[in-house]
Amino acid sequence: MQTIKLKNKPYLLNGYSIVGPMEGKGPLKDYFDYILKDDTLKEKTFEKSERKLLQDIIVGAIDKANLKVSDIDFFFGGDLLNQIVSSSYTARELELPFIGLYSACATMAESIALASIFVDNGLANNVVAGTCTHFSSAERQYRFPLELGNQRPPTAQWTITGGGASVISNNPSNIRVVAVTFGRVVDFGIGDVNNMGAAMAPAACDTIREHMKNVGRSSSDYDLILTGDLGKLGSEILIDLMEREKFILGKNYSDCGCMMYDKTERVFMGGSGAGCSASVLNSYILKKLSAGEFKRVLLVSTGALMSTTTSQQGDTIPGIAHAVELEYVGNKPVNKSVTFAKGEKKDG
Amino acid sequence: MQTIKLKNKPYLLNGYSIVGPMEGKGPLKDYFDYILKDDTLKEKTFEKSERKLLQDIIVGAIDKANLKVSDIDFFFGGDLLNQIVSSSYTARELELPFIGLYSACATMAESIALASIFVDNGLANNVVAGTCTHFSSAERQYRFPLELGNQRPPTAQWTITGGGASVISNNPSNIRVVAVTFGRVVDFGIGDVNNMGAAMAPAACDTIREHMKNVGRSSSDYDLILTGDLGKLGSEILIDLMEREKFILGKNYSDCGCMMYDKTERVFMGGSGAGCSASVLNSYILKKLSAGEFKRVLLVSTGALMSTTTSQQGDTIPGIAHAVELEYVGNKPVNKSVTFAKGEKKDG
Question: How far is the alpha carbon of A14 from chain B, nearest alpha carbon, in Å?
């Protein structure tokens, strides 16, 4: 069965999120731990900025969980850059055993799912799972050099600068990971890389349906069902697809990509990127669950598994979605006031 | 602890390997399940050939284990192409829940390690773990177009065409997975992408030392300690590094990259690629362990975690190594005669 019900329900001990200046003006601005003023993070290339961003996020999460890097048993992560270099070079700095993952923008849920399985089965006490994206590095790797000033079609999304990391642990907090579902790869034949929401929606539908069936819940059992980065069009397609299978996604459904930006920003269908669900999980969801305002949340990170090469060779875009179910248990408050991982980040 | 001792010791039920024409002339030729006559596999691009190769390998392993695709709970895999597209598109064809991984050429050990953890903890009954590489797709993604006819320096290695997959299961076989170690990322400052053996050797040393310490064994307890693709120079560096730490790697140490080619082939330091340890594990090691000729083997797949972008931006090459310890248990013979997964492969 693709859904794994966690017998000991490990804790999401704490999480940390950083976003860029543009994301920091959006509706979730009060929930993020840190908003960058300078998205270069004083690095010479955008790829190095992304790496520094992930490093700060991981260290921030460990620190906010009141742990040291040496308390962490494994680092689970991946990112959108070729050969997941942001994660690998971050793992080098942390000197932690590293389990490198890739599910495109579904990487956050994949990381948390595997991390939770390790803690649930007594293979680790504390692990960290995280990812991030940077608009400028993604743009030049997947699309065009920024200097070219290309126009975007109306179905396009905007890769966020930002990300988040969670510490999964045996130590109690208010939030437990109760079940995870690893998705199948689904392809409905969308070939347009400027319409990724449509490409990923069928995978999200498949995973949500299987997850709910396997845990025996319906959509009304959740305070929030949150997809990763389907965007406006992709979310509408998902609602339609679910309806055909007699699953009604109501007002408790939203999408991290749709929540990220203000209506005044020209981001078309909304935010995207592995950092999108990572930052929303470790800010908004974390705080709402931790305070008991949400009792049960299903996070469904969504990924588009193409590469520039497959697109150039005429392949369609396969999608994947992994799901993580979180519940409020009200053990003890976990949110200490936001601290900065490293001194130099204050001017970030 | 980065080593996980598997309490139920899941079985490596069976494995399957395919290699290209050049690899099929090497010293291991009698061990591979299938040797391609045409390394394009009748596909229009090398990337599509690689994808077809992985598909045939995965289906071959499932078939050789006397299972159907529908008996498999999860597919663990990754590959060297950007965004691990060979694995993702293979997962699309198989319609299996997919856990996408990336550790460069250490991906086989990472896949088997996670797959074994799933079965060991009762999260799955049968899972498949596999990877492959294709010389021609790797060459043009990481180095130069083949048409350029570039010369290679003497420290270079040769990405193999080939790969392998293993079915990890509760069903008994002669081979058990007893312990796995997830490596740390180690970087000794090598920046030369034509000297990957030197870049990966320190990570191999770190993982082998930690694994042996954690399971309480010394190198003489193994019939074979096998690194992934350090090549001739990297292997010599590893022997030196281990010696400094008072670990003697003797005649029971070898490297898949060194075993792959005949001395007459102009492959310089030997074979490399994620498919290198994948194909050797699922041919030579599988058969020797299965027959009881080996009682205990430590497979240490090694990966270089750079990208072309990090190299261009002046970064050094971080290495990683994951280890999997296999033992002979002599339950029952598993190797049925080699079958072909699909009719069309016979003319491959």
Answer: 22
Q: Is residue B64 very low, low, confident or very high in pLDDT (cuts 50, 70, 90)?
A: very high
**Cβ–Cβ < 8 Å for B215, B179:** yes
Closest chain A CA to residue B110: A99
Residue B346: per-residue pLDDT: 37
Pick the CATH number of A177-328 from 3.40.47.40, 3.40.50.300, 3.30.930.10, 3.10.450.50: 3.40.47.40
Of B2, B92, B315, the CB nearest to A187: B92
Fold of B3-171: Peroxisomal Thiolase; Chain A, domain 1 (3.40.47)
The number of CA neighbours under 13 Å toward the Cβ of B220 is: 2
For chain A, the domains span 3-171, 177-328
- Averaged over B118-123, what is the pLDDT? 98
Cβ–Cβ below 8 Å for B306 and A101: no
Q: Coil, strand, or helix at residue A165?
A: strand
pLDDT digits (tens, 9 = 90+) for A303-342: 999 999 999 999 999 999 999 999 999 855 544 444 443 3
Question: Mind listing the pLDDT tens digit for each residue in B240-299?
Answer: 999 999 999 999 999 999 999 998 888 889 999 999 999 999 999 999 999 999 999 999
Name the residue of chain A whose CA is nearest to B120's CA: A121
Contact residues on chain B for A91, CB-CB shorter than 8 A: 184-185, 318, 320
* Confidence check: pLDDT of A212 > 70: yes
Classify B179-328 by CATH class: alpha beta
ipTM: 0.94
Give A347: exposed, middle or buried? Use CB within 10 Å, 0-12, 13-18, 19+.
exposed
> Does A102 contact B84 at a Cβ distance shorter than 8 Å?
yes
pLDDT digits (tens, 9 = 90+) for B189-212: 999 999 999 999 999 999 999 999
Domains A3-171 and A177-328 share a fold: yes
Write out residues 175-214 of A within 8 Å (CB-CB) of B.
Answer: 181-187
